[in-house]
Structure formats: structure tokens, C-alpha cells
């Protein structure tokens, strides 16, 4: 099977299978980004999170917070209140840590050039820790990641280490980060729309210019070629 | 100029130029990793930090902590004491934030397969946010990044928001992260040594098997080929 057919098969399998995440569906704030990407034949999303404020209760004495040893006291994909966090902290019996985790998305790409293009768009929208992974089987995954974080220990052995005023301040900081995260997602959405328009326009112009009278039968004729993608890099 | 000669030229230029970082030299804890990588003809490092505990004084009312608006109150590439942080906090007049930033390294790679190999080694050593960037000019950069962080707001408008006992607890947490960071660097160093041994052994075996009587003149004969690299991916 050639690379293109294999990609089409992977995409079909991925989009048809059950969503196995804890939540079981795509987060509200990024449904549009995810469906925009999945509507392009060069891409499909394999996982995503719109960004969240979480409160984790970890095991004390553990040098590293491992997800498997943690209880999730609170999760919100929206802004939250200080009261939300105080109520959740009441259930803590180990080492609680408040985290803001920004938007993250894994995008499988048909070709390396397609990954390069989305990588460029992501960096440009403020997702500076984005990067590409190329696996042995030829799977090309572009990970969209931000540097925007927050990780604050709040209790030890079930005992709160800070005062309520501090939690109120932290809530503000976390909500500001959520807001900035939303702005970056919006910026990347606009950039993607723009790139899509440019590539459709270029393909049309190219077709009008060349009017080829033969088909190579690779189903590839509607995809921007390497030159088109690299044109967009400055 | 072919890709290989261009890479050799880039490497020469990069390793000969002045170190323009604030510190002006490679951090002590990673000199060995950096020189090991630079001794391989497939790679050279373009920037690195061994991991650090920093205290930043940011401008209040700013929704995002931008480096250019910040004063660095404290930086340590080693473990630190609670007194170090308390003394540094005395100089704060805005919004102070304590951060632990783990090991980060940017590695320019000759070919995509070389980047894949080091990406695999990095993920395997715990640097899960590592990724590859391919630029328009053909530069292939592998970024080694960890998920291991800490980002704690400590003061607002110059006023400390937490108690001294909390700073003492945070110091412990930051030092534990520094320790875990050191372990991961060590693990990746061992992996790299191992890979280097395997690839030297394979090249030797291949040369003994084939004993070619002509040279292609591309200076490439001592580099593991794609099959060698991909053999290492499981």
C-alpha cells in the first residue's frame, strides 16, 4: 500500500473509533479547530485538550507526580472561582498541586511538508513548544504545545500550606492564563483559515495554468505541493 | 553546495562563534553531553541549559510574563536553600514568580533520520516534550524538552503572598525536581553512549562484510545509514 492510501486508511480508522479519553468528546472551545483540521485531507487529529485548570491530589513522599498515583480533585476547561478550588481542596489527603495546562493537540500529517506548514502556523500563534515526531512506521505527528503553564503545590500530607487570599490570587492568575490560551487558539484558527484559502487559491491558479491532460492516479491533485507550503515560510 | 557540505559549514560556524548566552558558557552539569554530541559528525548543539531554579520579578498587571519586562532576582543551576530565595525576594518590587525550568537542548541534525534517532533517545530518557523542527533552509533542529516544571507566583506589587514555611517547602520541591532532572540527563547520556557504540559496531561489521572497492566521494562512509537508525526504533 502506498503512503497516501495508508494515510487515508489511518485517518478513517482514527475518526471512526470511539473517543477513549476520560471526557469522551472533543472540548467545547476547540470543536471548530478540530473539525477544520479534520476537513483537510492532509491532516487528522489524534488527541486534544482545549486547556484546563486542574487540582491533583498526589501521594506524599513521591519525588515525581505520576498521574497513576493521583486523584483528580477538580478539573475545569473554563475559568473557575476561588470557591471551586477551596471546596475541592477540602477533599485532599496528600500533596495537592494546582496546574494550568494549556491547549495541546496532536495532529497526524500526510507528509512532512504538511507537518512543517502546521508547525509554522502553531509557532506563529504563540505555541512555541510545538514539534514534529516521525515514527518508524512513517507516522508523522505534529504536537501543538505552549510554554504557558502554572504548577503550584498547595498542601502537604493533607494540610493546606497557603492562605485563602493566596488561593484567590492564584485563581485570578489561572483565569488570565485561560484567557490568553483562548486568544492563542483563536489566532491559530484564523491563521489556519487563511492558509487554507491561500492553498485553495494557489491550487486553482495552478490548475488553470497547467490544465494537465493526464492523471497520475495518486489522488494527490488537490493537495498543495512542497513549493506551495514552503512559499509560506518566511 | 550539497546538503552534507552545507551541514559541515554550519557546524564549523556554530562551534567557532562566541557563546552569546547571558552566562557565556555551557552549564557545568551538561558539558559532557554537549561535547559527546558535538563529537558526532551527524550533530551539533545550538543552545542548552542544564536546568535551573529562577526567581523572576515581573511587572504587575501584565497578563503574560514576558522575559523583556522582567528582572531576574535569582538563578541557580544547582540545588538552592530557602535562605537564598528569601534574600532574593527582599529585592522584589513587582510580581515575583518562582520557576523550575528543566534541561533543554537544541540539536541541529544532518539528516531527518539522525534527528529521529536522538528524538527516540530523548523520549526514552523521560524528555517527553521533545520534538523536531524542519526549517525552510533545510535546517533540522531536534529540541529536547521535559514536562517537569514548577511555576509559583510568590508576590504581588512587591508584597509577599505566602509564609516563610511555604518557601521552605517549595525549596524542597524545586530541589527534588533538580535531582530528577539530573537523573534524566544521566540516563540520556548513557543511552547516547550505548547508541554510539552500537552504530560504530554496525559500521565496522558492514565494512568487513562489503569491503567496497570504490568511494562515492560524499564523505558519508562513517555515518550509520537509515536502516541502522531505524533498527533502533521499537
The CATH H-level homologous superfamily of chain A: tRNA wybutosine-synthesizing-like
Give the quaternary arrangement of the chains: homodimer
Strand content of chain A: 15-25%
Q: Strand tally of chain A, please?
A: 10
Report what the structure shows:
The structure is a homodimer. Chain A is of the alpha+beta class and about 230 residues long. The first copy, chain A, has helices at about 5-15, 30-40, 80-90, 110-125, 165-210, 225-230, and strands at about 45-50, 50-60, 70-75, 95-100, 105-110, 130-135, 140-145, 150-155, 155, 160. Chain A has a single domain, classed as tRNA wybutosine-synthesizing-like (SSo0622-like fold, 2-Layer Sandwich). Chain A contains six helices and ten strands. In chain A, the strands form three sheets. The first copy, chain A, has a four-stranded antiparallel sheet, with helices on both faces. Chain A has a four-stranded antiparallel sheet with strand order 3-2-4-8, with helices on one face. A two-stranded antiparallel ribbon of chain A has the order 9-10. In chain A, a hairpin with a 5-residue loop joins β6 (about 130-135) and β7 (about 140-145). The first copy, chain A, is elongated. The relative contact order of chain A is 0.15. Mean pLDDT of chain A is about 80; it is low at about 210-234. At the A-B interface, α4, β6, β8 and α5 of A face α4, β6, β8 and α5 of B.
Amino acid at each position: 500500500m502506498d503512503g497516501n492510501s495508508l494515510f487515508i486508511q489511518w485517518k478513517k480508522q482514527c475518526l471512526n473509533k470511539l473517543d477513549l479519553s476520560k471526557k469522551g468528546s472533543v472540548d467545547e472551545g476547540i470543536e471548530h479547530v478540530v473539525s477544520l483540521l479534520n476537513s483537510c485531507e492532509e491532516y487528522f487529529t489524534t488527541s486534544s485538550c482545549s486547556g484546563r485548570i486542574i487540582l491533583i491530589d498526589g501521594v506524599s513522599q513521591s519525588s515525581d507526580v505520576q498521574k497513576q498515583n493521583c486523584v483528580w480533585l477538580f478539573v475545569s476547561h473554563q475559568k473557575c472561582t476561588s470557591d471551586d478550588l477551596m471546596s475541592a481542596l477540602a477533599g485532599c489527603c496528600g500533596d495537592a498541586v494546582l496546574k494550568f495546562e494549556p491547549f495541546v493537540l496532536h495532529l497526524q500529517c500526510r507528509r512532512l511538508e504538511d507537518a512543517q506548514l502546521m508547525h509554522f502556523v502553531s509557532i506563529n500563534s504563540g505555541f512555541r513548544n510545538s514539534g514534529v515526531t516521525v515514527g518508524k512506521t512513517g507516522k508523522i505527528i505534529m504536537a501543538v504545545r505552549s510554554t504557558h503553564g502554572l504548577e503550584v503545590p498547595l498542601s502537604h500530607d493533607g494540610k493546606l500550606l497557603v492562605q485563602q487570599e493566596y488561593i484567590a490570587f492564584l485563581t485570578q492568575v489561572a483565569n488570565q492564563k485561560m484567557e490568553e490560551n483562548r486568544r492563542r487558539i483563536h489566532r491559530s484558527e484564523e491563521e489556519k483559515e487563511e492558509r487554507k484559502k491561500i492553498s485553495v487559491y494557489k491550487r486553482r491558479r495552478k490548475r488553470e495554468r497547467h490544465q494537465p491532460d493526464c492523471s497520475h492516479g495518486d489522488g494527490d491533485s488537490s493537495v498543495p505541493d512542497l513549493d506551495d507550503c514552503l512559499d509560506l515560510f518566511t
